[in-house]
Amino acid sequence: MKVDYTQIRYELHGRVAIVTLDRPERLNAWTPDMAREFRQAMEHANQDPQVRAIIVIGAGRGFCAGVDMGALEGMTETGKTGSTRFEPLDQDSRADFQHPMTWLPSVSKPVIAAVNGPAAGLGLALLLFCDLRFASRDAAFVTSFSRRGLIAEHGTNWMLTRLVGHSRAIDLMFSSRKVDAEEAYRIGLADRISDPDRLLEEAHAYATDLAENVSPRSLRIMKRQLWDALFVDLAASMEEADREMKLSLQSADFKEGVAHFLEKRPPRFAGS
């Protein structure tokens, strides 16, 4: 079904969906319309069997400058943030992943943030809950909240601590200082760094490798395992792994994984 988006772009390149935040004149500042369209696009990518990986990027020179300041001005009068709950896109996903931004781990396919420029406030929250972060050398990461009289919103304190460690998260939250791509990579906030003109190309090459050479079933289950591991102890993680391994050994993708290796040919994974 074709959707007429106004604040994002949705494109399919091979088996990779590219979702572009598309308000470049405002550094892709977040609005209620953008939030709705972004959710629709991710739902579409999640349901489309052609799509096996997703890239999120910003148009122009910014990734996402956070909530549009016009919206923030309105909130000073109402005191309302518009927070709501979302149905998880993977029905087996935890209830924790049913809030603004935290629903992203419930997408059953790999989600890569291609951070092409400044990411601040809610824009930072968005990329924190993606699975991987590829950063342009022009990228900049800013928490912003303390300099707006706000607090750590949308689970940023929880996720940032797990990526960079407790004291570094305190530093970034308290100071709201700008972190460049090199520092982001060094502290674990970014997973790859690319030259600006190669960011999307390299993110797409990585996503295409996943789409063409990796079992979609394995990715779906492992993604859930890895996000669930943030909540459970080793014993519970082992029990889940034992249960899922038995199911994997009965799957079509396991049979294909063995067959293509023995036959020395590219895989033809069906995702089942």
TrEMBL record:
The keyword DNA damage does not apply. One of its GO terms (molecular function) is enoyl-CoA hydratase activity. It is an enzyme of class 4 (lyase). Pfam families: ECH_1. The keyword Lyase applies. CDD domains: crotonase-like (cd06558). Its EC number is 4.2.1.17. It comes from the Bacteria. Transmembrane segments: none annotated. Keywords: Lyase. PANTHER family: EG:BACN32G11.4 PROTEIN (PTHR43459:SF1), ENOYL-COA HYDRATASE (PTHR43459). NCBIfam families: PRK06210.1 (NF004857). This is Enoyl-CoA hydratase.
